[in-house]
Design a protein that fits this description.
homotetramer; 353 residues; 7 helices
């Protein structure tokens, strides 16, 4: 029932608004004795940080993380790790219009309907800035699962799919794309959207390798259900798939089978349609998740709306925005994958030793 | 951390295996004073019950529910409601081969890897029979949200999409299909799969109307994240979408906008690309979820596998199975929708009065 | 927020009313591979069972437990263990007066104030019969902590304290008393109360030996806080102490010290004022809890009250009651101790490996 | 399973060590629209603040709170409220001896046994400084329950009981004592302990008036169980009683009865032995809790102990300490009472509307 916490054995709570003084995360349940300093977290925040290319919002935030508790002489102590990031480049006056009328597709109306008031500065709590706290927490989670490697990449922008796969390419372009050709095409695509004040959707695929068989649990704690919860909760996400996902609905049982062969320590699989999860439990194969990001609703074309008094209005979102929020979604998807897997590792250890 | 519980304010726990003496659900947190008898639950179980047409498994289970607690003189008392359904048509010997080797695509290997042992009779806890308990719990949840109407229907089987939409049609064919023409086509399609010992996937769409604006909560308790968790946890589900879902990733911000106009009590929307949820909170529009079911892995074609000792083997799943598990998924999707919404109604009331 | 569940990693949910068809517990999160049959549970239920001496209620309940799920070929499978006990000796008509007026000291008025209605038959859900489900769940918990031995004994009835301590004596008298002399005195004491339709309070002390150092966790998951929650939630309990308890408030720091000396594997302690817990974490010493049970409010002396319409009334509790509920509290205190410790063992393993 | 969170519907998480840069609390689930500023919190922190008389530790901490999120234009927004208090008067070198050997009665050994390492500066996370975060969170909770008045007072120090009761007196002496005579006696008593480097225990009683009938819930969410958990988790607490508490174990059913008479809106009670709770649910009477604080283990008399290598040692706790930690426990007990009641109010609203 904690609206702002996630996880069970490894559990984190985030706080903070887009234009408040700071935002942060408290990570609880971290195993003791892990080496942790701000330098372990900062690179992941830097990857998500805005303002690094013309393809993301121009808000300039250093996103410098401070570790305020839970670490002593360079090691985690098992007590809560408090992480804080100060906001430094707020321009709340850009949002004065948002105070009065609802931006369709944004959370403005829903927040007002629920709470009777909202912090309209930069979207307040509903801003994607909150994902910085997830990324910081995710960096801690990675330390809990050194056996796992996680790579998220954008595989589609505005309907244009990447084809090639070179993992080293992901860090070389501003799109987290593993296909150099696609990355080049997307430059033009996203530039066009940006210049015309439009926006584009994207699909992110995330693969975790090294997950041993046995993580997750049946019924209401399924690994895939936890991942679906984690990913669907990211701002702008409208769809989540595991393995073949929706395509599996169009395959026959024969086509969708993942035959098994004797392996060294555990069986080998001849295919991975299942995306590494069966019955809610990891099989030892790579865990594969795909996440659909909608185009941001912040566009320069005026949209019909209503104001707080219920009168007809038009709104055009100024402020500074990502023309394609899905791009910066990649590090966030990676963080949520790490947080889910680290939590599941500890849960598995609790029950099965 | 309860592996077999779901929900927060309205929380249910299920138990039971496919071939054990019984299965059941304990529903906790139900508001007091609601009229409840077995007759309120049975129709939903009957809709999900197998053996009603040749398109589902031929296991004959009456799925008769008993209310063992929490109701006094026909009213809920606010104490836990224990629901029990006896298993009557187990044929465990059909599964003797499953005891020795792993069925690829099933949870057999993953359970063994996690727990070191498994109840192999009919899939044990991983059997879709568990969903009977969800459906029973879902019937209680519906009483908590009389303002909401929920309809799930199969919109696609084996890649063949239904086009028409007549809600009354859903109860008239064995496919929970709102399009009489598609239902007719599917008879042949599913028959073919059944006769050839193959299996088919399906897509189910579920729409909840009457959900007021304001249910759900930001960040890690988003209504869409809760729904994604609920749906991805159903047996055989590999994908979940809200509103436009993956299609939203291919739309521009202009195309995906849901403009608002002044309405009587609250704004009217000119579109519902968002599927009734913004920022994790309901907007007052219909809540729209789509769920992808894979084809069941139980097929008559032999598949390569390994046995418990790690030797190469082949397995062909006999037993009694659904040629398309997605069909009977429709009542389960409805139940999970009801359980999520009822829970969110109570949670909203807790925080916002 | 589950009102009827307890525990975190090992979590159980109970259901059922005093005069309903049955009551039960669902134990979730139990490690797999433990040997479990009904015979492992029944002895603990028998110890708590009423009607075995003239010092407890004369309701005759066999309290026969059935294991409905979670066990396969004699081993726990890691899936939920459903335990059910049928009620066979209800006499609801004894309670017809209770339907109309509130028994002071009982939950009657509070339930009506909260829920607007109540199952008045035998106290419904508020009956101490629910503790049978705890005892059954506790028997499962014991299997999780074979390294721990738990002994609860009544140390005081109606202000008369037991002095001697012979652990073997506990099973020899109907009072769970480790002092044969006190047990003899209590026969007369409780008989007097029973014959005059009065009731007596009691104090139960429970000691768990073999608990290793390191179970529990700081701040809001302290082992002592968990125990306090567990014990204060037992029917009729009004006080909980750890170690010296209230007496510690009257000692000086010097008197209350537990000096430490080098030991073989871990330090030895020269005293145990702390009751085996420091900073919320076990120290390796015996864990010592004391629990105060009030005299049951069911007495034959008429007490002033009001009826459901708010009119003045008098009530005299007929039905069948324990003259000293604290006696049968001993097995319940043991069960709660086992449930807390088993849970903490798994939680410790989750975080610290 | 969150080790550092408390509450269900209104849930708070604390973080921070005694000698780290800061400590804080994140309060989640707070209803929206409540007026909140730092001025609403500071007076409660000031009451708990050390260094205000010679009877508490001489560590000088301003305990200035900052509200970092969750409030907009002076109103709570329903999103998490992050509260931060900076540490300014750490003197870690006082604790160098504590790094090497275990202080008996402190959490030193237990933390090392659990985590393999510990932040020994000022007790790290186990320091009573953490209670500042509780007090800050408690101030927010009070806003949720304006109908309730809470008063905690010290009723006993070192075995010397206060007799008189003048609520206005509580704020007039440094002992939170409602009896001016006792306060005078305690000056000498605590001075003696302080000068001789000894320490004293205390008993705190807390009464909440204005709690309506119906808060709390049966079985494992009992109001008294929640209070027991909350209070037993406060540093140095070893016992918790509700109403008559342990004394109830020495009363007969007749003596312990709380007869009821017709009242205006709800029944009137002629006594309150139960402490305002029956069956785990509030009755409308004042809720009465008593809490036993042990004498702090930090004394100047050398105590036998072992060092980290397991060798025999002696330790004498220097640093700055409270001669009677129970005194400053009073504001902490009040805070926990407020946090439990506010949570229960929201939980009751969730289920019962």
């Amino acid at each position: 029932m904690s609206f702002n916490s996630f996880g069970h054995a490894l559990r984190f709570t985030t706080w903070g608004e887009s234009h408040g003084p700071a935002l942060g995360a408290v990570v609880d349940g971290c195993p003791p004795g892990l080496s942790l300093s701000e330098a372990d977290i900062q690179p992941f925040l830097d990857a998500r940080r805005p303002g690094q290319s013309r393809f993301t919002t121009q808000r300039r935030e250093p996103d410098q993380v401070r570790v305020l508790s839970g670490v002593f002489e360079g090691k985690t102590t098992g007590t809560p790790i408090s992480l804080m990031i100060e906001n430094v480049d707020q321009r709340s006056k850009d949002y004065s219009e948002v105070a009065k009328a609802y931006r369709p597709g944004h959370a403005d109306w829903a927040y007002d309907a629920k709470y009777g008031l909202r912090d309209w500065r930069g979207g307040g709590r509903s801003s994607a800035r909150e994902t910085a706290a997830r990324v910081a927490a995710g960096a801690v989670a990675r330390l809990v699962i050194p056996e796992v490697a996680i790579l998220a990449r954008v595989i589609e922008i505005g309907g244009d799919k990447a084809e090639g796969f070179d993992p080293d390419e992901v860090a070389r372009n501003p799109f987290f794309c593993a296909d150099a050709d696609a990355a080049e095409r997307w430059e033009a695509l996203v530039d066009d959207a940006r210049k015309s004040g439009s926006s584009l959707g994207a699909v992110v695929e995330c693969v975790a390798t090294g997950v041993p068989a046995g993580w997750g649990a049946p019924i209401y704690a399924k690994l895939d259900a936890e991942l679906a919860h984690a990913m669907m909760g990211i701002n702008a996400v409208k769809g989540v798939e595991i393995g073949e996902g929706f395509k599996a609905a169009r395959l026959s049982g024969e086509e969708n089978a993942d035959p098994m062969r004797p392996g060294e320590d555990s069986p080998e699989f001849l295919a991975n349609h299942a995306g590494g999860i069966a019955g809610g439990i990891s099989t030892g194969q790579p865990v594969v998740v795909r996440v659909a990001f909608k185009p941001t609703s912040s566009i320069l074309t005026p949209v019909e709306t209503v104001d707080r008094e219920g009168n007809a209005a038009e709104i055009m979102t100024k402020g500074r925005h990502d023309p394609c929020v899905g791009i910066r979604g990649a590090p966030v998807v990676e963080a949520m994958m790490a947080l889910v897997l680290a939590d599941q590792k500890l849960l598995h250890r609790a029950q099965c030793g």
